[in-house]
């Protein structure tokens, strides 16, 4: 879109002259504790690089390991086992970047970006592929539905990809239609070498504001992308089941995200606090809140977060405990403190 800079004009209190408000800065100020990166209307790669360079939360980003370089040496000594590394890399392979180009008018007052309803200033977050399936019937995407007849036999082959993220990143189907999902953005040169694949969002299928969870679908005609995602989902499930039987009771926290919209990074850290609000029966957790020290930045909102431990929680029996949800934000108690509110686990997601 070039270097177009939109402007908002607003009358100054008690004055007769209009004041100029930069809509990009206005949206950035509306982030509060959430961690979406906000871009302007210039070159995306340049804006992302500038945001990375100017970051104040983690100026050196030393703990953010490029996903392709993550190895056993980056894990705490007690967790340096190949199956643990395999599980983390399996999660990484399914992690995606979201670019949302509109803020819905239906975001409620007081909610994230509510002061920017109707804005077309883009924001960026992260997410995770949930499943991939062959589409049934005529393709519902805008291009096909606007040109094809109603006969299923005339519809091109299409595939549906389900993605999970934080609800504050992508709120409803209006925003889903204005969202681009980037798969396999692992290197700066991923687009040039053809590794990066993209798909347009379609519709929200599930969301929970309290848990800050949203699931939406993408439509694609790229059979190669579908086949690759199916293989990676199978690998994730296999790696999850193959986690070691003996792990420390102290939880390992891991986050895979696209900080500042950059290529995929992995961070690990310790669990600081775990709070559960129980449902009935008590064996099922309704909501949990996690505070952890795996570093995050703007752009990490919606990233997959996993707690791995041998400690039994929620009345579950077993020797390996792993649960995941999506990064929701950070608190001012410490540079590395973040929180998640979720009633979902990967056992219900996959």
From TrEMBL:
InterPro entries: Peptidase_S1_PA (IPR009003). Residues 1-30 are annotated as: Disordered. This is Peptidase S1 domain-containing protein. It comes from Elysia marginata.
């Amino acid at each position: 879109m070039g270097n177009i800079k939109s402007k908002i004009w607003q009358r100054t209190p008690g004055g007769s002259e209009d004041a100029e408000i930069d809509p990009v800065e206005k949206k950035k100020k509306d982030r509060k504790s959430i961690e979406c990166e906000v871009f302007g209307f210039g070159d995306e790669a340049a804006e992302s690089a500038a945001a990375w360079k100017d970051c104040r939360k983690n100026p050196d980003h030393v703990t953010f390991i490029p996903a392709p370089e993550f190895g056993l040496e980056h894990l705490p000594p007690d967790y340096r086992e190949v199956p643990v590394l395999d599980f983390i890399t399996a999660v990484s392979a399914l992690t995606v970047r979201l670019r949302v180009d509109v803020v819905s008018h239906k975001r409620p007052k007081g909610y994230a970006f509510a002061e920017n309803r109707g804005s077309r200033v883009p924001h960026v977050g992260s997410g995770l592929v949930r499943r991939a399936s062959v589409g049934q019937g005529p393709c519902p995407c805008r291009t096909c539905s606007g040109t094809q007849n109603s006969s299923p036999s005339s519809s091109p082959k299409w595939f549906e990809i389900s993605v999970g993220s934080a609800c504050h990143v992508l709120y409803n189907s209006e925003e889903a239609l204005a969202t681009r999902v980037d798969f396999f953005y692992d290197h700066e040169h991923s687009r040039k070498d053809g590794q990066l694949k993209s798909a347009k969002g379609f519709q929200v299928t599930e969301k929970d504001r309290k848990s800050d969870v949203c699931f939406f679908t993408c439509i694609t005609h790229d059979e190669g992308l579908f086949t690759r995602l199916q293989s990676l989902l199978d690998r994730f499930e296999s790696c999850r089941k193959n986690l070691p039987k003996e792990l420390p009771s102290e939880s390992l926290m891991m986050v895979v995200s696209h900080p500042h919209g950059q290529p995929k990074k992995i961070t690990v850290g310790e669990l600081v606090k775990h709070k559960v609000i129980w449902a009935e029966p008590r064996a099922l957790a309704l909501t949990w809140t996690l505070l952890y020290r795996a570093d995050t930045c703007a752009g990490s909102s919606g990233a997959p977060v996993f707690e791995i431990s041998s400690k039994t929680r929620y009345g579950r029996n077993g020797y390996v405990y792993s649960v995941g949800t999506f990064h929701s934000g950070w608190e001012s108690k410490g540079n590395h403190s973040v929180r998640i509110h979720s009633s979902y686990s990967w056992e219900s997601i996959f």
